[in-house]
Design goal:
alpha/beta; Rossmann fold; globular; binds NADPH dihydro-nicotinamide-adenine-dinucleotide phosphate
Length: 286
């Protein structure tokens, strides 16, 4: 008979606000399903308590933790080193203990990349990304590092767009174009992949639409949305109607979580089960 073990492996997420973060649902479902004796805990951590929270996690034997808003940049100074893309992105959403060292990774962009690679290889592709915030930054860096030929950033605020555009030009080989988003944007016909990396369409503003000429969506395009809730956004609905292949934000979220579990426990989790666990808690119109 094996010895009783009442000490779980600890993982979790520091955020403020933390209560609405649904990641816990898919992580704990995966732990249970795979018989991993681990817990994932949402923790409400204000910015001025981040240093203490990280010290606490290290002292209590956590094997890793996620950082959500507003800690993705501030956490870096509490870690020993960064993964390659996290270094370029300048933000960390996943801290991993390897031996005695703490590594900062960014699995947001990696989650998106895994979703995209299930339908197409980004290498050599012409990609249009709406938005220039944290999600866009993580996605654009991963796509550029994966060999995208051209990335067009379409953003409302020019300074934010310019900052990301300069970063990509400096750190990657992709051709970068910045478009100041005014009025209805028409996609160039040569576009291979379209990504909504803005927060437009996120619950409860599900009726919101991107200022995009949907007639410019062509069947050869892959259209992806970062919005996890609701998974079927107006953009994806329009893209499906125009014959495009679509990828929803739930897939990105699941892939991101699966990568975290691989980093922390070495187990490759069942993504279908993780997705089903999230779907059960998200509101789904239709
Ligand atoms: P940020 O606040 O950093 O960036 C938001 C971006 O959206 C900015 O570029 C902003 O433009 C743009 N935007 C917001 N509203 C409008 C509008 N009405 N018109 C035009 N542009 C607009 O947020 P994040 O990048 O961190 O997050 C963006 C979304 O990505 C969120 O909805 C989040 O839920 C989702 N996300 C999903 C993940 C997943 O795994 N599926 C992972 C991470 C994020 P401007 O610069 O002009 O303000």
């Amino acid at each position: 008979m094996s010895a009783l073990n009442f000490l779980p492996t600890l993982t979790g997420c520091f955020a403020q606000p933390a209560a609405e973060n649904p990641t816990v649902v898919m992580m704990e479902a995966a732990y249970r399903h795979h018989g991993i004796h681990a817990r994932y805990v949402n923790m409400e951590v204000p910015p001025e308590k981040l240093a203490e929270a990280v010290r606490g996690a290290k002292a209590q034997g956590y094997v890793g933790f996620n950082c959500s808003l507003p800690h993705k940049v501030a956490v870096i100074e509490h870690l020993d080193t960064l993964g390659d893309s996290a270094k370029v992105i300048g933000a960390v959403n996943c801290a991993v203990k390897r031996g005695e060292r703490w590594i900062g990774e960014n699995t947001d962009g990696k989650g998106f990349l895994s979703s995209l690679e299930e339908v197409t290889d980004p290498k050599g592709k012409r990609i249009v990304i709406f938005g220039a915030g944290g999600a866009s930054r993580a996605i654009a860096v991963e796509l550029a590092l994966a060999g995208a030929a051209k990335i067009t950033l379409v953003n409302r605020s020019e300074p934010r767009g310019a900052e990301l555009s300069e970063l990509l030009k400096r750190e990657t080989e992709s051709e970068i174009e910045l478009v100041n988003w005014r009025g209805r944007y028409r996609l160039p016909e040569s576009t291979d992949v379209v990504v909504n990396a803005t927060s437009i369409g996120l619950f409860p503003d599900m009726d919101a639409c991107l200022e995009l000429d949907v007639e410019s969506l062509m069947p050869h395009m892959v259209v992806a949305d970062v919005i996890p809730n609701p998974p079927l956004t107006n953009l994806l609905r329009a893209a499906s109607q125009r014959g495009c292949r679509t990828l929803d934000g739930l897939g990105m979220l699941v892939n991101q979580g699966a990568t975290n579990i691989e980093y922390w426990t070495g187990t490759t989790p069942d993504k279908g089960l993780m997705r089903a666990a999230l779907e059960a808690v998200f509101l789904r119109p239709e």
